[in-house]
């Protein structure tokens, strides 16, 4: 398959997953009187599945970083379109919050790449500082997806149980995501103890610590506007950096 061909194929695979799941499930659901939260869960769940399929294709075919530059903006754009179409204030707030976290995460990437020298990105790809140019959007997508799950679980289980559940989910999910990214050629790690030779133990620990804070922060994001919304994104970014540095220090002892 030619270079242009796989770009088109990956984009079509993503769109087919989203359209197939949302057109079949969401439209009847809305007409049947589903709430805005239920409709949101259907859409975010569909895009999470589509992201997994796209990442799986990239991993299986070892498509390299160009596939991430297709998949990530497509996912991000789908949330912007959804927020505008449905006027879902929660999704709109999570987009702003996620973008602040995405750009605020750049120092954490710098720590991994240039300070402890464990994180390695492929050469010759567009960068923001030392990170791939798609990385802020990638974090926006992740914050929106996890935030939607956290918001839903909190409404059913309360904050304490949701915090524990999300920490477990983060610890289980990150090795799978890192394996797909590694095999796709998006990035890899070196010079640190790793689970199955792919995912650093400090990254797993950092993800658990990051997830611990997310339900509480999202409960505030759901009601925040303006400066408070940006401030919550900055706070989450600082927590992200601190958890990465702490986890790296602890594992390296």
General description of the model:
There is one protein chain. The protein is mainly alpha-helical and 253 residues long. Helices cover 79% and strands 5% of the residues. The protein is built from 9 helices and 6 strands. The strands form 3 sheets. Strands 1-4 form a two-stranded antiparallel ribbon. Strands 2-3 form a two-stranded antiparallel sheet. Strand 5 and strand 6 form a beta hairpin. Helix 1 (3-31) packs antiparallel against helix 2 (36-61). The longest helix has 29 residues, at 3-31. It starts with a helix and ends with a helix. Mean pLDDT is 89; it is low at 13-31.
Q: Overall pLDDT, averaged?
A: 89
What is the rounded Rg?
18 Å
Beta-strand percentage?
Answer: under 5%
How far apart are the termini? Answer: 47 Å
Order of helices and strands, N to C? HHHHHEEEHHEEEHH
Widest sheet: strand ordering? 1-4
Give the fraction of residues assigned to helices: over 70%
Q: What is the overall number of helices? A: 9
Query: What overall form do the CA principal axes indicate?
Result: globular
């Amino acid at each position: 398959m030619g270079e242009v061909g796989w770009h088109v194929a990956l984009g079509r695979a993503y769109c087919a997953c989203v359209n197939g799941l949302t057109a079949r499930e969401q439209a009847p659901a809305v007409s049947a009187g589903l709430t805005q939260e239920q409709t949101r869960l259907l859409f975010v769940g569909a895009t999470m599945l589509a992201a997994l399929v796209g990442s799986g294709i990239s991993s299986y075919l070892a498509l390299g970083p160009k596939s991430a530059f297709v998949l990530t903006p497509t996912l991000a754009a789908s949330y912007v379109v959804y927020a505008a179409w449905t006027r879902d204030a929660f999704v709109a707030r999570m987009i702003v919050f996620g973008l602040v976290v995405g750009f605020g995460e750049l120092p954490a990437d710098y720590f991994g790449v240039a300070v402890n020298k464990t994180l390695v990105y492929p050469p010759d790809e567009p960068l923001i500082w030392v990170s791939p140019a798609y990385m802020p959007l990638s974090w926006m997508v992740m914050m929106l997806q996890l935030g939607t799950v956290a918001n839903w679980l909190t409404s059913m289980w309360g904050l304490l149980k949701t915090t524990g559940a999300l920490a477990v989910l983060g610890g289980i999910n990150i090795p799978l995501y890192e394996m797909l990214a590694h095999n796709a050629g998006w990035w890899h790690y070196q010079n640190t103890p790793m689970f199955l030779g792919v995912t650093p133990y400090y990254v797993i620990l950092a993800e658990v610590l990051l997830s611990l804070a997310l339900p509480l922060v999202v409960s505030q994001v759901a009601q925040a506007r303006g400066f408070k919304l940006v401030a919550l994104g900055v706070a989450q970014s600082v927590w992200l950096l601190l958890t990465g540095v702490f986890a790296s220090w602890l594992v390296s002892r």
